Amino acid sequence: YMEQEEEWGREGLLDPAWGDKLRKTFAAWCDSHFRKAGTQIENIEEDFRNGLKLMLLLEVISSDTLQKPERGKMRFHHIANVNKALDFIASKGVK
């Protein structure tokens, strides 16, 4: 086990079991907030990819309204949504 742990540390990776636990914990936290919006997380990597659920999560936890999201399916639409979310976070003073 020590060799595996050293390999994870050398590669900058978490123990895969710990990473799974973090994902599940974060998904449960998100779901606790998404219930207010009538949705839930299915897969963190996929659900946050286009920025729409990230924007929704920020609206739910802040009780503020973000800019209107881009509804396109192209990568630049997804990036625009994530940038809107990050701009909102920065506007709240988070660094």
From TrEMBL:
InterPro entries: CH_dom (IPR001715), CH_dom_sf (IPR036872). This is Calponin-homology (CH) domain-containing protein. It comes from Parasteatoda tepidariorum. SUPFAM superfamilies: Calponin-homology domain, CH-domain (SSF47576). Pfam families: CH. Residues 20-95 form the Calponin-homology (CH) domain.
